[in-house]
Design brief:
single chain, 293 residues, mainly beta, Methylamine Dehydrogenase, Chain H, four-stranded antiparallel β-sheet, 0% helix, 52% strand, globular
């Protein structure tokens, strides 16, 4: 039986992005109310950093060591936040439009990527941007990196799916999902498996090396906005415009559970490092932690 709890003292506006720290001690959420919220998973105390960006916080990711939080905003800025003090250590401008998704590249916490409405993938270091990767012809809502830091995945609302290496060379390209790609995710335990989802309500699992499709899942009505693999490789979670979360069993390739506590679009999902919990953020302003028994 899967149980849930709505995290206390949450947001006054829609939640765009959530993440779990690598030690499982913190959950972060980015809100359209220009703030991030950080919960302590031991006592559920919450700290709020208000007016972090000049517009909504559209993307949040913990660094590999959990000491930093990478954020992206609708103000076209990427920031590095200190997890302990919730102070902005670095602020990087230069994106041409809304930043929709961010991710760390590798384990050193010094390299990271972003994408958004300007159709580019940007590679950054703590000192600034180092590379622009072009190829997408339309807006990108989602981006992820492989756990070994050697591959960058993104998709566009024109249905384009790209995997690049950090040098900007295309390793994989497909046109898929009839109503665009709105969510992507790399597996957390291997570097050759990833998932994409879009406006057609379908989730597709791919092999990066062979280019083959491992499976297609259908369980949503409307756009799918969130995807997350569990670190143990057992689960894939998807969340969508229908306010539903689908939990897919990657051993049987079947729908295991439907989670229906949200009342608006589920925009972001993240698993705990032990794969026993799932956190979801929604436009209903709630962040929910699910316990997978």
């Amino acid at each position: 039986m899967i149980t849930h709890e709505v995290l206390p003292n949450g947001s006054t506006n829609a939640i765009y992005s959530v993440d779990y720290s690598v030690d499982g001690k913190h959950i972060v959420a980015g809100s359209l109310s220009h703030r991030i919220l950080v919960w302590n998973t031991t006592n559920w105390d919450v700290r709020k950093y208000t007016e972090l960006h000049a517009d909504g916080v559209s993307a949040v990711r913990f660094s590999p060591d959990g000491q930093k939080i990478l954020t992206g905003g609708l103000d076209k800025v990427v920031k590095i936040i200190n997890t302990s003090s919730l102070t902005a250590e670095i602020s990087l401008g230069g994106s041409g439009d809304y930043v929709q998704s961010v991710a760390f590249l590798g384990k050193d916490g010094k390299h990271f990527v972003s994408t958004g409405y300007d159709k580019l993938v940007r590679i950054w270091t703590l000192g600034g941007q180092t590379r622009e990767i072009s190829g997408m012809t339309a807006t990108s809502h989602s981006l992820d990196t492989s756990f070994n830091g050697k591959h960058i995945l993104s998709g566009s609302v024109q249905g384009e799916i790209f995997v690049w290496n950090p040098d900007g060379e295309v390793e994989f390209k497909q046109i898929h999902h009839t109503k665009g790609v709105h969510a992507v995710a790399f597996a957390k335990h291997v570097s050759d498996i990833f998932a994409t989802a879009g406006g057609d309500g379908k989730v597709t699992i791919w092999n990066r090396t062979s280019g083959e499709i491992h499976g297609n899942f259908r369980g949503h009505k409307g756009y799918i906005r969130g995807l997350a693999f569990s670190p143990d490789g057992k689960w894939l979670a998807s969340g969508g415009q229908d306010a539903k979360i689908c939990l897919w069993n990657l051993e049987t390739f079947k729908l295991e559970e439907e989670l229906n506590q949200h009342t608006n679009t589920v925009y972001s999902l993240a698993f705990s490092p032990d794969s026993k919990h799932l956190v979801s953020g929604s436009f209903d302003r709630n962040v929910i932690r699910w316990t997978l028994n």
